[in-house]
Amino acid sequence: MNMEAQKYENRGVNVFYQNELFKTRIIVLGAKEKIPECEMETYVMFYVVSGEVLLRRNGESSTLRENQLFITEPASLSMETTLGARLLGVQIKVRP
Asked: What is the dihedral of CA 90, 79, 56, 74, to 10 degrees?
């Protein structure tokens, strides 16, 4: 959980495990940073390692705090933080 990580704009380097079904990465957001709304075609799991985020899923908002977990089916997602946060994110592909 202490893995060196880049900010959201350079998130591709934060992937530490990937295969045909899973992509696992560290997500780091600084104070007042956001991840813009995006349509996720995969199941997604977020675990908050530290900090707090406001997560929006299909227009509904939830606050996730340290040590909380969120799992969703494919959805429209965005998040933002006031003070900063570090998360573990896992994308799980939907099999046809």
From this structure: -30
